[in-house]
Specification:
heterodimer, A: 253 residues, alpha+beta, Ubiquitin-like (UB roll), Fumarate Reductase Iron-sulfur Protein, Chain B, domain 2, 2 domains, 5-stranded mixed β-sheet, two-stranded antiparallel ribbon, 8 helices, 7 strands, 34% helix, B: 232 residues, mainly alpha, 9 helices, binds protoporphyrin IX containing FE, binds iron/sulfur cluster, binds FE2/S2 (inorganic) cluster
């Protein structure tokens, strides 16, 4: 099939980007979205141009690096998948497709569609850890965990840190990500020691990185490739409130 | 107090303050709507109206334990504080969110978030403008054509006989109810009050309360426009 692509091109973080239009022929419906971009890059290289930079690694929806906004929707029109899992059969011959990077102050564009997501790493560093005795690990089954809690922790741990939640949020809030990272520890017995401290510290880091505030739109949940629920945000909010009421001081970094 | 300030510093804390002040304002609005329905009672024997007596009661309640108008003023101060916190936190969060999302998408997402959630900010501004007008209209009388202090029922009927004024009230109350529809649903997440039962009822609950408030508030201007409520 034949497509008209409008792709955001930006040479460096500080330069001003713009859309550039490309005609691409010979796209197979069996291709993934990233295969289609590879095809386009071959065409651009043949014409002596600069290929479109986009991030990718696993190409099977687990690394979280391939984020891009496709026709206004983070990871494209299909639910519960990443851009690399999107197939070209979702589109029709002659379609126009607009492709843009995540847009958030805390995710500066490095080049074209590639953004810097180190702000996520710093949120995790602020509280995404537990205290355990290292060395002689105890038996994995020694601490019983209710099935429901294990499931909730596991669902939260499915977050791949792709940043689609931030991209879709009109406030560019990263509360879904932050809440998922906090919840996958706070549902488990091992995560209780730092639970309130973690909530206070991670939310502080979230704010300091320049993410916006959550207004409970739920756009994040709609685009999240892993189906993370906004209920985790409520849980994190309550932990922040509890942290304050019990006088937990935010760890200054 | 220091803990409250620490909480306020974070975005979650500001939202919690907005939730708490919003709940207070919501309580006032429910009371106000129910009080307004007194307009439908018939006049007292002495030519006054139950609405007038009710307003007088509000001014005098607590006397002589507190000075006349004391409780009313205390109540007004609490409301004013709640309005202040609600609006200041909203502005701070709004400006933070604007910096966080510098560019717009070329093709704006047709994402499925509700109309009510998207209009919280501008809807809130409309409600705030309305409240100022409303106080000048019915409380101080500055924006009223023929205001007489204490004759609450007459002021109300005269005020709403102007269809433009009545129309503005209906639109503004509509904006308020839309604001409350999202707010009442959202507050459960903000305060982290959630379980399976609550999750099931919070959406219909928010819708039902907003609709009841809308019908209750608009019944008065509509009744004046349709001459169900008239001057004696
Ligand atoms: C159609 C709907 C409404 C009607 C008929 C109505 C009627 C009135 C009247 C007659 C008063 C003056 C009472 C007195 O001076 O003793 C009043 C005061 C007030 N109303 Fe409303 N109102 C309506 C909707 C609203 C809404 C939606 C809000 C809030 C957003 C609101 C907020 C207030 C406030 C803040 C005051 C002043 C209270 C005070 O001075 O202590 N009203 N209203
Ligand atoms: S919460 Fe979902 S959308 Fe956000 S980073 Fe994690 S996987 Fe991506
Ligand atoms: S490339 Fe790894 S999730 Fe898409």
């Amino acid at each position: 099939m034949k497509l008209k692509l409008h792709i955001w091109r930006q040479t460096s973080p500080r330069s001003k980007g713009d859309f550039q239009a490309y005609d691409l022929d010979g796209v197979s419906p069996h291709m993934s979205f990233l295969d289609m971009l590879d095809l386009l890059n071959e065409q651009i290289l043949e014409e002596g141009g600069e290929p479109v930079a986009f991030e990718h690694d696993c190409r099977e929806g687990i690394c979280g690096s391939c984020g891009m906004v496709i026709n206004g929707i983070a990871h494209g029109p299909e639910k519960l998948i990443t851009a690399c899992q999107l197939h070209m059969r979702t589109f029709k011959d002659g379609d126009e497709i607009w492709i843009e990077p995540w847009r958030a102050a805390a995710f500066p564009v490095i080049k074209d569609l590639v953004v810097e997501r180190a702000s996520f790493d710093r949120i995790i560093q602020a509280g995404g850890y537990i205290s355990v005795r290292s060395g002689s690990a105890q038996d994995a089954n020694a601490i019983p965990i209710p099935k429901a809690d294990a499931d909730r922790a596991f669902d939260a741990a499915a977050c791949i840190g792709c940043g689609a939640c931030v991209a879709a949020c009109p406030n560019a809030s990263a509360m879904l990500f932050t809440a998922a990272k906090a919840a996958h520890l706070s549902y488990l017995p091992q995560g209780q020691t730092e639970r309130l401290q973690r909530a206070a510290d991670m939310v502080t880091a979230h704010d300091e990185e320049g993410f916006g505030n959550c207004t409970n739109h739920g756009a994040c949940q709609e685009v999240c490739p892993k189906g993370i629920s906004v209920d985790y945000i409520g849980r994190l909010n309550r932990d922040v409130l509890k942290a304050t009421l019990s006088g937990v001081e935010v760890t200054t970094r | 107090m220091r803990r409250v300030l620490t909480l306020y510093r974070s975005s979650v804390g500001k939202k919690i303050m907005m939730a708490v002040s919003g709940i207070l304002l919501f309580g006032f609005i429910v009371g106000h709507m129910v009080g307004n329905l007194k307009a439908f009672q018939s006049h007292n024997g002495d030519g006054t109206h139950p609405l007038d007596t009710y307003a007088e009661f509000l001014r005098e309640v607590g006397y002589p334990l507190v000075p006349e108008g004391g409780l009313l003023w205390a109540f007004r101060l609490v409301l004013l504080a709640a309005v202040g916190v609600h609006i200041i936190a909203a502005i701070q969060l709004w400006s933070g969110a604007r910096t966080a999302r510098p560019g717009r998408y070329r093709k704006e997402d047709s994402q499925v978030f509700s109309y009510a959630s998207r209009t919280m900010r501008w809807g809130g501004v409309i409600v705030a403008v309305f409240v100022v007008y409303h106080i000048l209209h019915f409380t101080t009388g500055h924006a009223h054509p023929d205001f007489e202090y204490g004759r609450v029922y007459d002021n109300l009927v005269i005020g709403f006989q102007n269809p433009l004024v009545a129309g503005f009230y209906i639109v503004a109350v509509g904006a308020l109810c839309l604001h409350l529809y999202h707010g009442l649903w959202s507050v459960f997440t903000t305060l982290g009050v959630q379980n399976r039962r609550i999750d099931r009822i919070r959406r219909p609950l928010a819708a039902a309360i907003s609709v009841i408030l809308f019908l209750g508030f608009t019944s008065v201007p509509l009744a004046v426009l349709t001459r169900i409520l008239t001057l004696p």
